[in-house]
Amino acid sequence: MELTDNYQNLSSIYQELSIKKGQLAKIDKKELEKSTFEKTDTVVLGAEKYDENDYQRVLNKFKNKDSEIRTHEQTHASSAATTSAINYNYQVGPDGKLYAMGGSVRFDTSIPNDPQSAKIKLEQLKDASSSVSSMSGADSSIAQTANLNKMLLESLKQGFNYEN
Predict the structure, then answer these.
(1) In the chain, fewer beta carbons within 10 Å around the N or the C end?
(2) 157: which residues sit within 8 A by CB, 6+ positions away?
(3) Cβ neighbours around 42 below 10 Å, total
(4) CB within 8 A of 146, min separation 6: which ones?
């Protein structure tokens, strides 16, 4: 009787192994089909479907935007003290190269204790943020904040007291 129980246990183990082996074979087959599909899944541009003018038009847009963004951010950086290098956001163009599609400059916004130095620095921040031909929302906000802080500094210098 003990021999029969051992045989049945072994039989059930082999049966489970066979089921698992079949499941693994199905997974392997799906993975092979998937990798074969990915290898052959390519886009072939035929001569009649490929338009060189469209390609050049899109490529020129990427190049123009890149140039515009770099000039914009470099103008900001050259006008006031910064705390880090210019940070660009890139996108891959149709030729596989990276093009700047956005950017930012971190201005040094610390205000000196000396009122005259503070006024000069706030003026520099205002000028640096508004020095470009097309101001972004962030540029406008920085210029406005610097101008308001400069006005507040001047009013405190003249002796206005805002306490009740």
Answers:
(1) C
(2) 115
(3) 6
(4) 122, 123, 125, 126, 129
Q: For residues 136 and 97, what is the distance between their CA atoms, to the nearest angstrom? A: 26
3-state secondary structure the chain: CHHHHHHHHHHHHHHHHHHHHHHHHHHHHHHHHHHHHHHHCCCCCCCCCCCHHHHHHHHHHHHHHHHHHHHHHHHHHHHCCECCCCEEEEEECCCCCEEEEEEECCECCCCCCCHHHHHHHHHHHHHHHCCCCCCCHHHHHHHHHHHHHHHHHHHHHCCCCCCC
Return left, alpha or beta for 159; rule: phi > 0 is left, psi -120 to 50 is alpha, else beta: left
Residue pair 147/126 in contact by the 8 Å Cβ criterion: yes
pTM strictly above 0.85 = no
CB of 100 closer than 8 Å to CB of 89: yes
Bridge partners (DSSP) listed for residue 98: 92
Mind listing the pLDDT tens digit for each residue in 20-71?
777 877 877 777 666 554 554 444 555 556 678 888 899 999 999 999 999 9
